[in-house]
Task: structure prediction
Amino acid sequence: MGGPTPELDVSDLDRSLAFYVGVIGFAVMFDRPEERFAFLTLKGVHLMLEEAAGPGRRFRTAPLEHRYGRGVNFMIEVAEIDQLHSRVQSEGFTIVIPLEERWYWQNEVEYGRKQFVVADPDGHLLRFRRCSAKDPPSNNFPPTVQAVEIHRRIVIKGPPNS
Result:
């Protein structure tokens, strides 16, 4: 495992598992039912869920108030974004940002993302996305000017300034 693995408090673990596993497509890697805890995975993305009122140790720096996901969203790359969006919608979950195509600059190249944001049963925001453009080109540019066509634009990238 590499990178951060969020651990989310949830009000009802069974309801959250129905959302994350049944609708989104995560799998339970392992769980500890006696602690009301589950470790989930989805194509390299890891997520831990624990029932807020459950037994065991809890990590809190302030009182927990419902709509737990304030101030953060989790971006998760998925291959089948249209199907996932349809499934989430048909199950009646709150779509916070509808399915959209957005373009973002990364250095001098613009990259596309198809994305939407949904709130889980406790208000945690999940931003699912699929890249709409090729992987970023190598930063090892030859001394000649390199042209990259992305999103009907030509972006000129020359050698770094000395």
User: Anything to note?
Assistant: The longest helix spans residues 13-24. The chain has two domains: 1-55, 72-134+144-162. Helices lie at 13-24, 81-90.
